[in-house]
Design goal:
The chain is an alpha+beta fold. The chain has 3 helices and 4 strands. It folds into 2 domains: about 25 residues, no CATH class; about 60 residues, Membrane-bound Lytic Murein Transglycosylase D, Chain A, CATH 3.10.350.
Length: about 100
């Protein structure tokens, strides 16, 4: 199945894991630094989808926060960790064809 050119994985190489083809790891994407990003300290059991709902009004944009903080996997964030929250304009942008 071909990827849409609007996919965040578009253009990444296809690699093999245990003989099955897959996409390169998300960590290979370089995060973009936005000077107007917010800094959020994780409290309790907060999840990225909860933070996306709080900051963007849409929980489905959790992966924008994950991409901006690719040093850890999305489920590895714990209370006290600091996250960068990209601005709404960056989280809802659509790449140009």
């Amino acid at each position: 199945m071909a990827l849409s050119r609007y996919s965040r994985y578009y253009g990444l190489p296809i690699v093999s894991f245990d003989g099955a083809p897959g996409l390169a790891l998300r960590g290979t994407l370089l995060p973009v630094a936005y000077p107007d990003s917010l800094v959020h300290v994780v409290i309790g059991e907060e999840t990225l989808d909860q933070l996306a709902e709080r900051y963007y009004g849409r929980e489905d944009l959790w992966w924008r926060i994950a991409d901006a903080n690719s040093a850890k996997a999305p489920l590895d964030w714990r209370a006290g960790d600091t996250l960068q929250i990209p601005p709404l304009r960056a989280a809802t942008r659509t790449p140009r064809p």
